[in-house]
Amino acid sequence: MEASLNLKLLEMCSKCGACFSICPSCVNIPGYDPREVIKDILDGSHEKWINSKHIWECLECHYCLEMCYQHYGFENAMTAMRTIAAKRGVHPTQVKRGWEMFVKTSRLGEPAIPARKKLGLPEAKGSGAEEFKKLYALLKESREKGRGHGGKTE
Ligand code: SF4
Ligand code: SF4
């Protein structure tokens, strides 16, 4: 956890809270509050967020990052929590489905051919699935090697 987050910056973030009012998820989703997550990370009691749906409600819009005076942002805390959850396999079903589709096709969905024709759009280009598979295999291999050398996984 410490490896993926700058706790010093997070400490400053916990005292600031300024971007709560410009975060679309904070403003519109009851219960979504990165300030609480950050507080728990700093207290070492972040486990309870791993199974929470709220960590998946960050839109990754980067508003908090852009507005932040220390160029850090709420989203780093949410991303760190999602990474742990995903590694433990406790992500929402649609995320898992989306990932499997992406690994297989390098797309998150198939292009809607009739709709493209209707809108006069050109044929969709190839997705680069073969290149992605090669890169993904290399990434997995280097991760395995990293683990073999005592690298951290969380
Ligand atoms: S990226 Fe930041 S501003 Fe956007 S939803 Fe996530 S926490 Fe909120
Ligand atoms: S992300 Fe930046 S602006 Fe937002 S609460 Fe943290 S320190 Fe403040």
Name a few traits of the molecule.
globular; single chain; 54% helix; mainly alpha; 8 helices; 154 residues; binds iron/sulfur cluster
How would you portray this structure in words?
- With 154 residues, the chain is mainly alpha-helical.
- The chain folds into two domains: 86 residues, no CATH class; 56 residues, no CATH class.
- Helices cover 54% and strands 0% of the residues.
- It has eight helices and no strands.
- Helix 3 crosses helix 5.
- The protein is globular and about 50 Å long.
- The model has no long low-confidence stretch (mean pLDDT 88).
- It binds iron/sulfur cluster (2 copies).
- One iron/sulfur cluster binds next to helix 2, helix 4 and helix 5.
Q: Low-confidence stretches at least 5 residues in length (pLDDT < 50)?
A: none
| Rg calculated over all Cα atoms | 19 Å
Our count of helices gives 8
Question: Largest sheet, if any?
Answer: none
Instruction: Find the count of extended strands (DSSP E, 2+ residues).
Output: 0
Morphology: globular
What is the domain total for the residues?
2
Structural class: mainly alpha
Helix and strand run: HHHHHHHH
Average predicted local confidence, pLDDT: 88
In percent, how helical is the residue content? 40-55%
* Strand coverage percent: under 5%
Q: Give the CA-CA distance, first to last residue.
A: 6 Å
